[in-house]
Every structure is written in structure tokens, then in C-alpha cells.
């Protein structure tokens, strides 16, 4: 089955924060740990994150949503940091307990902004542990507080970031039309923000200023709204592939092509972010048996992944996914070749990656000899 890299957002929005808090932030975006989806128990590796295969499963603190605020009370700050560490190690019950205590402290002190921050941390903890009901309840609390207490609008990035997760929750609960409405809202609102953003910078820096120049000289001030638009498009594309039928596939492809343009603009073609985007979307397509389109995106990543040092541990899984897609479109000799390359390159990786690559190759060879369709798909 397709392997996904469980990594923090391919599009990341930058926030400044205190130096001492940096050491406590979740650093999944630097990790290249490699996981597989539960298509078949043979390919399952236990993980501490929900098995979604999405590149954006992170706390809003990390990329979007409630901007980190300075927690003046040391005890409260320490509790939030402790909850991050618990979440990092999959100890969600302990994280919730610590945050509940922190929430009571903010209520006693009547500190609205830190209280919103703790509600946000609770929402994301429930979200990561797969408790969708409590996650939705707490996200709704955060949204209401953002609007009524903190003066945020539905086009602000905090609101958009939370709305994307709420749309995902609705989709996973089977409320597909409501979920699509949420995704469409995020894309539409952020497109308007980006249009205004580009006009403003065009006036300030000249209409002929190159995007690359703006990225290099202005950094997050220029890229954050564009990155958030890319994320909204990426999430919508994944939704269409995962939950809608083939009549929406062309639309998903158009969105993802736009996502790749944005990724090239911000990060460059040979970047960890770009390779991760391609790999995750290719894997999502394989999961839904859209093999031809999976080949399109994985082949782009295949050409570049060897040039990106941070992607080294992803290579065996990338090659196996590519082999899987090739096999299903009848290109079996090529599929076997890529599976063998995966085994070769897995030798420098941890044992479970080596075992996965060897198991994948053995099964692929067996299926090729028997000249039958691979029967890994359970829907």
C-alpha cells in the first residue's frame, strides 16, 4: 500500500516566538520518518499520529491559527510546553490533563488570550488523537473567541487555519457537502487575500519585481498569505481525491498543479516541501486507485528526491509507491526495477524500512510471476 511521510505542513507560515520556546516546538517538519497507511496489516507501522497521510497534521501553534502569545506566567508556560512534549510522544491523555489544569488557571486569572491559546492546544490534542467530537467542540470554542473576543474575521489566517481542520473533521464524519463548503470557503477567502496582498506589494515594490526577489528579500511577510492559499488548495485537492468520484479528479489535478507552482515559487523545485507535497498527493491517488495520475506526480518527485538531503529516509517509500502505480498500469518490468532500487537504498536506513522494502519487492515479484492483479485494495 502507499507509504506516506508524516510530516508537518508542506506549507508553513512563520511566526516569531521567544528563543526559549523554540526548543520546545514540535519539529516534525525536520523529520523524514516514514510510515505506511493501513491498507493491509502487512504494511502497517504503528504511529503516534492519525493514519491520514496528510502533510499538514500539526498544531496551529506550529503553522497557522492562534498566533503564539507570550505567556507571562511561568507555570502556565511550562504546562503548555509539557503538553507539547506529551503530544510529541503520543501521550495524549496526559497532554489533555495538563491542558485542563492550564485552562483552569487562565480562567482564574481572567486572561482571555492565553485562555484561547489553551483551548486551541486542547482542540489540536483531541484532533491528533482522533477524538473528532471533542476536537470539533473545542475548535468551535476557539473560533467563537477569535471572532467575539479578539476581533478576527473569517478571512484572517487564524480562522482559515482552523476552518481547514474543521472541514477535515466533517469529511471524516461523512458530512461531505458541509466539508466541501468549508474547503471552498477557505480557498475563496484566501484567494481574495492573496489578490490584495499581491496588489499591495506590486505598488510598493514595482510591478516588474520578480516573485523570487520578493521571497528572498521580504521572507514570511510576502510568503505567508501565499503559503496559506497553497495549503487550502492542497487540502481541497486531497478532499476531492479521497471523498469524491472520478468526475472531480480533473478539478483536483488543477488545484494541485497550482499548489506545485506556489511551492516552486516559495521553496524552489528541489526542496523538501515540494518533494513532500508530490509524495503525499501521489500516495493519496494510489490509495484511491488513480494510478495514472499518481505516476504524473510521483515521477516529478522521483527526478528530484535524490538531490534533497532531508528526503533521504523517504526514498524507499517513494520508490515503492512509484513501483506500485507502475505495476497497476501494466508497466511491470519498470515497477520491479524501482522496487529493487528501493531495497538497495533502504540498506542505509533503519530496520523497519529495510523490512518494508524487502517485503514489498517479494510480493511484487510474486504477483508479477502469477500474472495477476495485485489485490491490496480494501474499500
TrEMBL record:
<dbReference type="GO" id="GO:0034551">
    <property type="term" value="P:mitochondrial respiratory chain complex III assembly"/>
</dbReference>
<dbReference type="InterPro" id="IPR019734">
    <property type="entry name" value="TPR_rpt"/>
</dbReference>
<dbReference type="InterPro" id="IPR040395">
    <property type="entry name" value="TTC19"/>
</dbReference>
<dbReference type="InterPro" id="IPR011990">
    <property type="entry name" value="TPR-like_helical_dom_sf"/>
</dbReference>
<dbReference type="GO" id="GO:0005743">
    <property type="term" value="C:mitochondrial inner membrane"/>
</dbReference>
<keyword id="KW-0802">TPR repeat</keyword>
<protein>
    <submittedName>
        <fullName>TPR_REGION domain-containing protein</fullName>
    </submittedName>
</protein>
<comment type="similarity">
    <text>Belongs to the TTC19 family.</text>
</comment>
<keyword id="KW-0809">Transit peptide</keyword>
<keyword id="KW-0496">Mitochondrion</keyword>
<keyword id="KW-0677">Repeat</keyword>
<dbReference type="Pfam" id="PF13374">
    <property type="entry name" value="TPR_10"/>
</dbReference>
<dbReference type="Pfam" id="PF13181">
    <property type="entry name" value="TPR_8"/>
</dbReference>
Amino acid at each position: 500500500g502507499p507509504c506516506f511521510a508524516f510530516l508537518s505542513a508542506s506549507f508553513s507560515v512563520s511566526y516569531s516566538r521567544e528563543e526559549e520556546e523554540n526548543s520546545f516546538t514540535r519539529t516534525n517538519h525536520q523529520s523524514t520518518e516514514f510510515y505506511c497507511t493501513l491498507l493491509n496489516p502487512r504494511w502497517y507501522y504503528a504511529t503516534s499520529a492519525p493514519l491520514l497521510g496528510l502533510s499538514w497534521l500539526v498544531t496551529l501553534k506550529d503553522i497557522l491559527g492562534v498566533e503564539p502569545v507570550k505567556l507571562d506566567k511561568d507555570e502556565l508556560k511550562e504546562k503548555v510546553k509539557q503538553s507539547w512534549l506529551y503530544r510529541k510522544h503520543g501521550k495524549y491523555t496526559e497532554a489533555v490533563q495538563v491542558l485542563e489544569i492550564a485552562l483552569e488557571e487562565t480562567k482564574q486569572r481572567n486572561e482571555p488570550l492565553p485562555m484561547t491559546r489553551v483551548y486551541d492546544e486542547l482542540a489540536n490534542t483531541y484532533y491528533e488523537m482522533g477524538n473528532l467530537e471533542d476536537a470539533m467542540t473545542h475548535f468551535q470554542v476557539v473560533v467563537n473567541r477569535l471572532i467575539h473576543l479578539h476581533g478576527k474575521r473569517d478571512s484572517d489566517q487564524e480562522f482559515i487555519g482552523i476552518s481547514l481542520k474543521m472541514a477535515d473533521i466533517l469529511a471524516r464524519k461523512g458530512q461531505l457537502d458541509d466539508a466541501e463548503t468549508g474547503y471552498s470557503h477557505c480557498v475563496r477567502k484566501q484567494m481574495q487575500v492573496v489578490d490584495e496582498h499581491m496588489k499591495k506589494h506590486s505598488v510598493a515594490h514595482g510591478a516588474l519585481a520578480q516573485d523570487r526577489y520578493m521571497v528572498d528579500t521580504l521572507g514570511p511577510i510576502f510568503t505567508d498569505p501565499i503559503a496559506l492559499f497553497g495549503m487550502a488548495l492542497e487540502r481541497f485537492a486531497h478532499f476531492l481525491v479521497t471523498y469524491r468520484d472520478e468526475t472531480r479528479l480533473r478539478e483536483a489535478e488543477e488545484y494541485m498543479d497550482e499548489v506545485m507552482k506556489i511551492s516552486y515559487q516559495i521553496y524552489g523545485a528541489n526542496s523538501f516541501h515540494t518533494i513532500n507535497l508530490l509524495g503525499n498527493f501521489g500516495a493519496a491517488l494510489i490509495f484511491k486507485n488513480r494510478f495514472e495520475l499518481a505516476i504524473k506526480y510521483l515521477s516529478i518527485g522521483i527526478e528530484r528526491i535524490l538531490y534533497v538531503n532531508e528526503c533521504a529516509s523517504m526514498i524507499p517509500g517513494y520508490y515503492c509507491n512509484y513501483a506500485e502505480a507502475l505495476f497497476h498500469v501494466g508497466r511491470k518490468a519498470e515497477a520491479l526495477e524501482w522496487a529493487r532500487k528501493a531495497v538497495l537504498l533502504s540498506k542505509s536506513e533503519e530496520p523497519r524500512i529495510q523490512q518494508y522494502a524487502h517485503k514489498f519487492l517479494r510480493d511484487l515479484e510474486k504477483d508479477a510471476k502469477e500474472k495477476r492483479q495485485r489485490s491490496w485494495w480494501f474499500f
